Structure formats: structure tokens, C-alpha cells
Amino acid sequence: MIGRRQYQLRIRLADAAAETARHDPSAREIAPLAEILRRHGAALVCQHDAFAAYVAEAERRGPGAFPLYAWTRATIEDPVKKAKYVKAFTLQVDGEEVYSAETADALEADLRPLVGGPVVTAMTRHDTDPANNPQVPKRYRS
Fold this sequence. Notes:
Blueprint: E1 7-13, H1 15-23, H2 31-39, E2 42-46, H3 47-61, H4 69-77, H5 79-85, E3 88-93, H6 101-111, E4 120-127
Antiparallel strand pairs: 1-3, 1-4, 2-3
């Protein structure tokens, strides 16, 4: 259905769990999280790594075609933001970055018991309504 709002879940992991998830998402140390994700066809995507890949692609193809290049590059070069984003993960479901409310609800319900534990420290839910999402700061607009 065109215009239907979609959702994305994001989780923040504890330091050691984040490092493990970035390099071995099926590791025993994060097995309860990995099992829930497997059941839902979901995958972890480290936000810092995704930002770095975007910047690398923009630099390879030319930043002019990448409207978020300057902002994203500034983010990955800032040590404080890097420390934040290496622990932040988006959850893709069946390869999709956003998904239905029903899909988000089911995944969120299964993940909720892990929040506040030794692996998952926080979980947030985001939607595709532009009014609910950050806008590019003026200094990075073309």
C-alpha cells in the first residue's frame, strides 16, 4: 500500500557485545539475540559501519551524487559519534531497512526481554514519517 508508514527497530549493544556482533554475529556470546533475529529473518547492521560504507561508496563514485556525504563523513570522523555508532545497530528484516508495523511489533516483542541485559542495552522504534526523523543540518545542505 503506497503511503503506508513503515518501521525500523534499532538496538544499542553493550561494548563487548557490539564488538562481537560487528565481527561474528552468530557468536555464542550473543546467541539469545542471534536466535531471535534468525526466527524473524532479521540481521544486525552496525550504524557506524553502514555510514563508513556510504562514505566509501560516495568517494569511489563521486560525492556529488550522495546528498548525505558531508554530514555522514563528519559523523564517522568524530570520535564521540564513532563511539556511539559502533554500538548502535539497525535491524533489517528479510533484507529490508523498513518493514510493516506487524513485523516490527513481533520482533520488538521478542527482543524486549533482552533490553537492559548484558547484551542489549536499549531498543528504539523509528518510522518513515519525515517529521519524526532528523533533517540534514544547514551547514551540510548543498
